């Protein structure tokens, strides 16, 4: 279903890359087809990306009650739905600004994990209010990769995360296999797994294996989960601010005293084109 040809753009935030599909009225793509998402994200046969961000006017979508000004319909590269995407929302906000869709009021972006407010900073970074973390438990979860086991902290940022502190970021290995976790019931819908080393009192480095994608160069919700876990690990409490280094760059996460997290980082749009459905296999 959908139009024979449609416009696309590509952008990234700390090299977590996304294909944007402008669909203001929500009818170009109908209910976005998993096969189309997989094909677009394929790095060999398609355009290549970690996920797809469909841009729909908030009032014209029917996925959530409050779609904000603009709704971000996020899909992982395997076609699955992710409730929220912290790098994606900045790239989405960059697209809105460049397309002239932003007024003088802060933009409210609707997601399946609630509405998030966006601030455009003078230094060209973008800040998203990521809302409050849920911390279902800090004990009992173990992640396994490359023959090693690590205890992990469960932090939910609208989507699920398991954060494991490691001695060396090389330890989890090259992720030839997806890391596993126990108990299975902790994450019935799968999980994003972050491996973290502490670099200083307020600085950490991480690698991530994303649910529905594989290892990526960055994960914004993951950086927030990591900042929460690092704060707790250090015996600190909000307000804290962490620099979180990822393979694709660095972001700043603040855990404010009102319990909201803010995520600040870069976001760029770097390619655009027109896609023809006749190219689909
Ligand atoms: N890359 C994202 C997270 C995308 C969703 C995730 N893979 C999931 O399934 O929860 C980010 O920047 O937060």
Describe this structure in words.
The protein has three helices and 18 strands. By secondary structure, the protein is mainly β. It has two domains: 5-128 and 266-279, Diaminopimelate Epimerase, Chain A, domain 1, CATH 3.10.310.10; 142-259, Diaminopimelate Epimerase, Chain A, domain 1, CATH 3.10.310.10. It has an 18-stranded mixed β-sheet that branches. The radius of gyration is 18 Å and the shape is globular. Bound molecules: ligand LBFN2T5F. Residues 16, 51, 76, 82, 85-88, 159, 192, 210-213, 219-222 line the site of ligand LBFN2T5F. Substrate binds at residues 16, 76, 86-87, 159, 192, 210-211, 220-221. This is Diaminopimelate epimerase. Belongs to the diaminopimelate epimerase family.
Keywords:
2 domains, 281 residues, 18 strands, 45% strand, binds the ligand N[C@@H](CCC[C@H](N)C(=O)O)C(=O)O, mainly beta, Diaminopimelate Epimerase, Chain A, domain 1, 3 helices
CATH topology of the largest domain: Diaminopimelate Epimerase, Chain A, domain 1
Number of helices: 3
Question: How does CATH name the architecture of the largest domain?
Answer: Roll
Which residues form runs of ≥5 with pLDDT under 50?
Answer: none
Count of DSSP strands? 18
For CATH, the homologous superfamily of the largest domain is named as Diaminopimelate Epimerase, Chain A, domain 1
Taking the alpha carbons of the first and last residues, their distance comes to 15 Å
CATH C-level class of the largest domain is: Alpha Beta
Family: Belongs to the diaminopimelate epimerase family.
Function: Catalyzes the stereoinversion of LL-2,6-diaminopimelate (L,L-DAP) to meso-diaminopimelate (meso-DAP), a precursor of L-lysine and an essential component of the bacterial peptidoglycan.
InterPro entries: DAP_epimerase_AS (IPR018510), DAP_epimerase_DapF (IPR001653)
Subunit structure: Homodimer.
């Amino acid at each position: 279903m959908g139009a024979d040809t449609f416009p696309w753009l590509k952008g990234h935030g700390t090299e977590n890359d996304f294909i944007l599909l402008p669909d203001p009225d929500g009818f170009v793509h109908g209910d976005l087809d998993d096969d189309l998402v997989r094909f677009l994200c394929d790095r060999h046969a398609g355009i290549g990306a970690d996920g797809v961000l469909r841009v729909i006017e908030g009032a014209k979508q029917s996925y959530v009650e409050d779609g904000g000004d603009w709704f971000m319909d996020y899909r992982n590269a395997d076609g699955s739905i992710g409730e929220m995407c912290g790098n994606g929302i900045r790239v989405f906000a960059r697209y809105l600004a460049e397309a002239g869709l932003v007024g003088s009021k802060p933009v409210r972006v609707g997601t399946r994990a609630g509405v998030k407010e966006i601030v455009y900073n003078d230094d060209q970074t973008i800040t998203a209010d990521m809302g409050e973390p849920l911390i279902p438990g800090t004990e009992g979860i173990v992640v396994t990769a490359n023959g090693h086991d690590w205890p992990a902290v469960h932090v939910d940022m609208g989507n699920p995360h398991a954060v494991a502190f490691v001695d060396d970021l090389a330890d989890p290995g090259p992720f030839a296999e997806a890391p596993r976790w126990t108990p299975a019931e902790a994450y019935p819908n799968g999980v994003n797994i972050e491996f973290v080393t502490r670099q200083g009192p307020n600085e950490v480095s991480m690698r991530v294996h994303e649910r529905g994608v594989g290892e990526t160069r960055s994960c914004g919700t993951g950086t927030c989960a990591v900042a929460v876990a690092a704060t707790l690990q250090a015996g600190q409490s909000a307000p804290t601010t962490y620099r979180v280094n990822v393979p694709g760059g660095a972001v700043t996460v603040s855990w404010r005293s009102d319990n909201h997290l803010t995520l600040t980082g870069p976001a760029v749009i770097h390619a655009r084109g027109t896609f023809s459905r006749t190219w689909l296999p």
